[in-house]
Amino acid sequence: MAGLLGGGGGLRGHGELPLNADINVTSLVDVAFVLLIIFMITAPIMQGGVDVRLPRAEARPIEPKEGLIVTVDRQGLIYLDQAGLSYEDFRATFPAFVRTKRPTGVYLRADGRVAYARVVQVLAVIRAAGVQDVGLIAEPETIER
Length: 145
Description:
Elements: H1 26-47, E1 56-57, E2 68-72, E3 78-80, E4 83-85, H2 87-101, E5 106-110, H3 116-128, E6 134-136, E7 139-140
């Protein structure tokens, strides 16, 4: 009668399949591959930014590591952390931005077609805000033989 009431181990050993304590990794692998594909697709989009044609130079190119990137596009619009500003707005807001963020360095990306005067004006605002470490980013020049 004890077998009918479920006591003493139940029906185990009477024709039932044994318990399987293994982890089914097939679904985990499927999820990992889906996440990998999503990251592979979104990574280039996240690196995007402002489209500029950087000037070419023989000097070793600067790779922006840590710091603030200021970009001047073809129309002369200034981008500070992906936010587009006019020169007047940039001149008014940049010193306060530097005081709050305290960047280790500032990297200036300017389109090669922008007037030199505009680049000098932006550089002057950066220096007037107290930033001592300013890097100019350029594309490496390819030597054709």
